[in-house]
Automatic annotation (TrEMBL):
Gene Ontology cellular-component terms listed: centrosome; ciliary basal body; cytosol; early endosome; Golgi apparatus
The name this protein goes by in its record: Rab GTPase-binding effector protein 2
Biased composition (Polar residues): 249-265
Key words of the record: Cell projection, Cilium biogenesis/degradation, Coiled coil, Cytoplasm, Cytoskeleton, Endocytosis, Endosome, Phosphoprotein, Protein transport, Transport
Coiled coil: 292-390, 425-473
Keyword Metal-binding among UniProt keywords: no
Chief location of this protein within or outside the cell: cytoplasm
Amino acid sequence: MAAAAPVTAGEDERRRRLGAALEGPQPQEGANVEAESGELSRLRAELAGALAEMETMKAVAEVSESTKAEAVAAVQRQCQEEVASLQAILKDSISSYEAQITALKQERQQKQQDCEEKERELGRLKQLLSRAHPLDSLEKQMEKAHEDSEKLREIILPMEQEIEELKAKLLRAEELIQEIQRRPQHAPSLHGSTELLPLSRDPSPPLEPPEELSGDGGPAAEAFAHNCDDSASISSFSLGGGAGSSASLPRSRQGLSPEQEETASLVSTGTLVPEGIYLPPPGYQLVPDTQWEQLQMEGRQLQKDLESISRERDELQEGLRRSNEDCAKQMQVLLSQVQNSEQLLQTLQGTVSQAQERVQLQMAELVTTHKCLHNEVKRLNEENRGLRAEQLPSSAPQGPQQEQGEEESLPSSVPELQQLLRHTQQEAQARLQAQEHGAERLRIEIVTLREALEEETAARASLEGQLRVQREETEVLEASLCSLRTEVERVQQEQSKAQLPDLSEQRAKVLRLQAELETSEQVQRDFVRLSQALQVRPVPAPPSCLAPFRMTSPWSCKDSLMVRGVLSSSWGWHGPVLSYCSKNPEALVCASQSPEALSAEHGVDAQGICGVSPTEVASGSTGPRPCPWGLTDGVGAAFPHQVPSAPLV
């Protein structure tokens, strides 16, 4: 019991110290623990965010790799399918074209066989035609006819000789017969018999050659005899003695004995010769008309058959030519299609190779990005490890105090613990949301900055292009400006060279005109001084003297000079005496003498021309009056109030 009492007392004391310790520094330690827990939770949240970002980056990389692999596989499959389809199409087209080519070749062979059969049939028909129509084989017929003519010539020449001999003997026999007829009937029996015996003996030898010839002639003689029998153009045989012999024989036979008649008949039969035999020319043969017509009909029929066969042959040749042309065209089309398919295959191969190159480039880019991401993950892991390593030493000495603070800060009841847990969870979620919002905002800013950078790069590229174009344009403009300057300088030099003589001429002309102007001004000044010095007065003139100078128009300077000359020559005036009025030019006025002097010297009215006195002219009080000399002719009859002096002309 005594031992138990100190133990309980020590425990109570320790509890009191703990309670005092907890009650004393509890607020300060709670603040430190909360700060450390907040820092730890922040670091843990950052670590979790980094790990989550790393996981997302890994997932994105895996997804991108899988999508790229799938895209590459899809492109490869599509290319393989297209290549397989094109190969199948090419194989089908090649097989169809080969089948068409074989069919065309077979058709061509069939047509060639048909043509050969037609040609053989045509040759056979030609042979039949040559056999049926002997005129077709002219060379053979001519050769045969020539041979027949030679053989007939060999036969006919000795026969003609024998005929001549027989004619001579026949003449001698006729002469003997006539002599016997002149003699008495009883005497010449023996003599005639003796005379006729040689005749009966003589014709026998000449008759032998025709028999021999007929026996030795062979087929030629038989053919000639057959043709002579069949033809209608062979004349009949007649006696060589003609009508005289035929008339004398019956008379001789009337007085002859049977033996003599037999001898005479033998002689007559021996003397029968073919006189009118028609010999055809070489190469021809004698045939009857019916056979000739039949041969002509057969020849025409065979000619028609030959023409039809030739037309068929031409048609077959034309068809064969067309089929050859069609086959050649089809072959060209097939070759062009094969070339097009080869070009298409080459283009497809090029596109496939380009797609493969692009895929390889994309794969290389993905590999580089994967490596970059892997390096970034390694760097983040290393930073995480470094942060953990830095956190562990700093948290090691504070371990007992932290555990003590945690033990002291932990609530004693479960609801408080749950509330604290919910509070910490809400704070952690709020921090995570804030971090996510910040990360999202940073991502958006990064994206916007990238877009702005791309836009700036694009704008810079466009500006550089515009600047390049403007530089080129300025260079072109500078070159054109330099060329224009040189051209302007050249033109100015040419103009200056061309204007030098013109300027000299213009200068000389200006100087000349200035001199003329000065002279004219001097003359005008002289005239003005002279007119101012002179006193203007009217001068009458006799109408007889001035009658030739009456005009409807005002007088000119020349007319006034002429009038002055007339007055000076007729009246004795000398010098510039007369002038004209500017208002009424047809009225003459005096410019040097007074009216009294004119009246006393020349007998002119002192009142002057137009009935106006010099005093009235000077004072200007006169009115318009008609001209007494009638010089105006109805143009300007009125004299003005004031008559200014005109310059002397």
